[in-house]
Amino acid sequence: MEHSQSYKSFMKSSYNSIKHSTYFDSYDHFFKDFRNKEITFVEIGVLAGGSLFMWRDYFGPKARIIGIDFNPNAKKWEKHGFEIFIGSQSDENFWNEFKTKVGNIDILLDDGGHTYEQQIITTECLLDAINDGGLLVIEDTHSSYMKNYGKRKYSFVEYTKKKVDAINMRFKDISGLEPERRVWSIEFVESMVAFKINKKASYMKSELISNDGENDHAEDYVYRNADISAKMKSFFNKMNISTDNRLVKRIIRKCEKISTKRKFSAKKYFD
Length: 271
Ligand SMILES: C[S@@+](CC[C@H](N)C(=O)[O-])C[C@H]1O[C@@H](n2cnc3c(N)ncnc32)[C@H](O)[C@@H]1O
Description:
The chain folds into 2 domains: about 5-200, 3-Layer(aba) Sandwich (Rossmann fold), CATH 3.40.50; about 220-265. It is about 35% helix and about 15% strand. It has helices at about 5-10, 25-30, 50-60, 90-100, 115-125, 155-170, 200, 225-240, 245-260, and strands at about 40-45, 65-70, 85, 105-110, 130-140, 185-190, 190-195. A 7-stranded mixed sheet has the order 3-2-1-4-5-7-6, with helices on both faces. The model has no long low-confidence stretch (mean pLDDT about 95). S-adenosylmethionine binds near residues 19, 70 and 118.
């Protein structure tokens, strides 16, 4: 933590900010490529102003730093060169106005109220306003496992699982779910979820491509239960029956299928 640039910027800020010690390495991990560039960075949650100064130091003078808070007193930070918007992150109309005024952004960091409703509405309203290559990072996602932030069934982490399904629907229409065409990838670290935006890449079509290299027609063991195949092959070998025989191959394949259905040795990892 001490070596991270964001920690150094945090310690330099003259105004108060309180952050968890594990966050600085994650900030550096997600944001390092955006430093000293002409980016638009938005943080929800201004409180005592400390993090605004931290981000200005971290990203450098070319960055446009915008703060959002429900508390109208946050406007006072405008005289320090920050852009401040007052409104609630769970208000879809607030976001529509915000997007009209600000335009596209590069990074959104949510350190606001941390309820599931606030986190989900913020994500849904802002994903389309982030430039390709940009990030939407929701902080304090441990609230998904805590009381008083909303119904657990609709927690932010539960919502992200649906996004994982929707990303996979880009492969092809497997289940009728709408494919996700803004988020390229999702990264989970302790207490944070980062959505990497790339609309262009999310429209890429998945097709099978061969490199036309030499093909030795290796037997494809896909879908097979390796343990059962080995046991059956050794059984047939002992009986001096060739496993190249078509009927024997069919028997082995049938047994593999039956045993795969009956025994799921990875179940313990779900418990
Ligand atoms: C954890 S503090 C932010 C701390 C600040 N980012 C820092 O690091 O110093 C949370 C802030 O979110 C604001 N907030 C709470 N609910 C909000 C909402 N619905 N919309 C916008 N801001 C909200 C609070 O007023 C408070 O200033």
